[in-house]
Amino acid sequence: MNHYNRLYQALAQQCSEAAIEWLKQALNAIASESDPTAKHQIASAMAKRKVGDQAVTLTLELMGEEPREICHWSSADCSRILLNLALIDTSDKPLTSLLSEIYAQGDERERAALLMGIPVLDPDAQWLVEAEDCCRTNSLLLFSAMVMHNPYPARHFSSRAFNQLVLKALFLGLDIAHIEDLQARYNSELSVMCADYIDERMAANRDYPASIWLAMRLRDCRPGTANLLADCLTAQDVGKRYYAALALQHEPDEQTEALQKIIKQQAEQETDPEVQAALTKLIESKRL
Amino acid sequence: MNYFDPHIHMVSRTTDDYENMAAAGIVGVVEPAFWQGQPRTNVGSFIDYYDLLLGWERFRASQFGILHYCTMGLNPKEANNREMARDVLNILPRYLAKDGVVAVGEIGYDDITPAEDEALLAQMEMAKEFELPVLIHTPHRDKVTGTKRTLDAIKDAGVAPEMVIVDHLNELTLPLVLDSGVWRGHSIYPNTKMSEPRMVALLQQYGTERMVVNSAADWGKSDPLKVPKVGQLMLDSGFSEEQVSKVLFENPIEFYAQSGRINLAEVQRPKVDQTQQWQENSALRGQTPIVEK
Asked: How many Cβ pairs within 8 Å bridge chains A and B?
């Protein structure tokens, strides 16, 4: 079943009859009328009021990957992605100009829906330059839509754009654990950028984001960084402890005896179950 | 005390204003589209202005914990540039369809010309089509005539009176609209329009039903804290907190709630740091994150 049918089916099963009736008419109008763009503009804008904004769950294969369950798109988001697909299907215009037009004329939520749905709308990354440009937004909503739980950036972005995206996510206070395939796209430049960011924060007497360690490898950092990471293992902030333990799972060669001692000691007194689990995994991986 | 300013032009205000408004208890605002102090020369300027109201200004307000809604319309002054007005009316529907657009407005009369008549009527038709309330501005000059003409135009267009607020009313024009069933808007200004004591006197004389108060603050000499200031004077004059809340919070929201795009619960809900919600994918269902301070 293609994306269009899956989206439609999920909405049909999870929304009211009146909502689906409206959606069906809007989709038909886009498919059959002489000016599909005008129909699409109004329908996309009205979608939240007409279809609602409640949770929807659906299973999709994004960009040829294994099917995945998606539960962070609302009924309004799904409807808008579906309306976009309908316009792409009908219109004679090139995909890139269509997507740019939809983006330019959408409000923040309509734009967010386009970015969340970009793996569906543009699987071959024809709109890549514009998609990278969208990350320059001031809006946390738009940035998150492109960056969090979205496989598109890791699959298509240049290293430079991907690294900027990771750093900006940290800057905005987002948890970079939700950036897909971060580990697969790791590069040494990312460590340097993140280490500089930690330095900058500490120089200003400010804390740095706990999840930053996920984007760093000790081998690419200055000496001394390992001590900072070790300190995080015993930090008061549970986030710091959790991400330090998680990050060390990617650092099998960096675990000195001193570090292993700290890990074991912390595992004995750790009170948070998630940190405890991460530490246990770390200890077990080392035994293997 | 929570306040709501149902008519204020935030694009012309500073971040200090936002900070002071939040500190004074203002939790939400409606920014009506209006003119820019000098006439625009082409429809592109309107497109950018409307996009600004929906985009950057809403974002700016959110940085201070203030919910920002807007109304979309072609103001009467610029309706007199007929060629440009036609272009603006052509793009208006796509903005009336947007979320966060809680009314058509501000529209109405300025010089009371035939061009203003046409733009007013055309936009009331759009309000019916998009099931939106209407915010109507009454003119600064020849106000009594303008108010009477406004009421006639509403009747001619067949817009339900409860879907209309007639704004910038004063001692002379409020009595004219009382029996019509429309909502009654009052703008409190430092020198012109209404003052706090005069507003409180109107509330004492006419009661609180369908009464709405705003600052209409813009780039002229005006005060974005006029709504809380009226609230304080109401309390000092013997009104109860419930009455203050009705006029300065519930009434305007109830009026705009007829758009289906704002409601009391949404405006009152506690603020959360939604970046944290990304920690738990499940908590994110149906939402996208916003940091609210």
From this structure: 77
Mutant choice from B98, B269, B274, B287 vs A, greatest count of A C-beta within 10 A: B98
Nearest CA to B70 out of B32, B21, B106, B27 is that of B32
Interface of B with A in 219-248 (CB under 8 A): none
Among A110, A131, A152, the domain boundary falls at A131
CB contact under 8 A, B278 and A145: no
Note the pLDDT tens digit of each residue in A234-266. Answer: 999 999 999 999 999 888 787 788 888 999 999
Degrees, nearest 5: CA angle A201-A204-A209:
25
Spatial distance between the Cα atoms of A71 and A82, rounded to a whole number of angstroms:
16
- DSSP class of residue A150 equals -
Same domain, A7 and A95: yes
Q: pLDDT by residue (tens digit) across A182-229? A: 999 999 999 999 999 999 999 999 999 999 999 999 999 988 899 999
Alpha-carbon torsion B26, B28, B34, B38, what sign? Answer: positive
Question: In chain A, positions 43-102, which contact chain B (CB-CB < 8 Å)?
Answer: 45-46, 48-49, 53-56, 71-75
Domain that holds residue B114: 3-262
Q: Does residue A175 fall inside a structural domain?
A: no
User: CATH number of the domain that B139 lies in?
Assistant: 3.20.20.140
| Parent domain of A80 | 3-131
Task: Say whether B248 sits in a helix, a strand or coil.
Answer: helix
Q: Which residues contact A9 (CB under 8 A, 6 or more apart)?
A: A1, A58
